[in-house]
Amino acid sequence: MAELAGVAWDDLAVLLLGLEHRSLSQAARALHTSQSTASRRLLRLEERLGGRLFDRTPEGLRPTALAEQVAPFARLIAGHMADIQRVASGHEAAPHGRVRLAVIDGLAPYFVMPGLESLRRQHPGIELDLIAGHAVLDLVRGEADLALRFVRPTAPDLVVRPLAEVTMGVYAHPRLVDRPPAELPWLAFYDPSARFQETQWLRAHITPAHLTTASTWSMLMAGAQAGVGAAILSPRVAEPAGLVRIPVQAPPVPSRQLLLVYHRALRDVPRIAAVRAWLLGQVEAFLSEA
């Protein structure tokens, strides 16, 4: 019979990330450790459980039946560990420590990065991890502490605070503005399943002469500035960059609601509350600029 008394949470974390990524190297990166350390932890867990958890294949890690059976219980432990961390965080005496902020790469550089110096002056004990990208991080599982996003979450433990309505429009480099929209090359966010309203609007109202897609908003912006094509952007970032709005004979591009999201249990944690208040001020200042 397997001896379970010595099973460590660090070992179970390797199991869960191996199931998620199907790669030991990616699991190690997510844990901020080396692949050899992750491999030792996985081997130790297999010895404790008395069976193999993954088969190594050319396509990556393939979970065994044992791994699939253990996983639901390991996820319960992961949830409890995250809760313990959140409770412990609430007892810091002053804003201090690291805060992981998930940001929208196409907007955040304009109101997050310029304000970092003021945050550092107000709260020198706080350090930020800025996590940019289009993936929606799981705040319940503790992948980030705060998130600025356009996608409204459904988890009941998350607090959602609307910050602003971000208007959108069609913008292009000045040398492209004399051409009809349907004759222009276009740039769009990479969205093969048409989840985003910009993709739906473009498909419904424009048949681009040529379409280039990009997986981040910053690449989309850079392409528009280089004259690669027209793109749907916020005037708050497009117009200061010298892009020109193109009139289109179609219904207006839907606006986006910018949301601040965080776990309910982190509401009163001093460092989270401090970063939250700073973010609200940054967004307000950004939107008030004409």
Task: Describe this entry's structure for a reader.
- The model has no long low-confidence stretch (mean pLDDT 85).
- The radius of gyration is 23 Å and the shape is globular.
- Strand 1 and strand 2 form a beta hairpin.
- It has 10 helices and 12 strands.
- It is of the alpha/beta class and 290 residues long.
- The chain has a 5-stranded mixed beta sheet with strand order 4-3-5-12-6, covered by helices on one side. Strands 10-7-11 form a 3-stranded antiparallel beta sheet. A two-stranded antiparallel ribbon has the order 1-2.
SSE run: HHHEEHEHHEEEEEHEHEHEEH
Q: From the helix content, strand content and strand pairing, which structural class follows? A: alpha/beta
In percent, how helical is the residue content?
25-40%
- If strands are numbered along the chain, what order do they take across the biggest sheet? 4-3-5-12-6
Care to count the β-strands? 12
Report on the biggest sheet. Answer: 5 strands, mixed
Low-confidence sequence ranges:
none
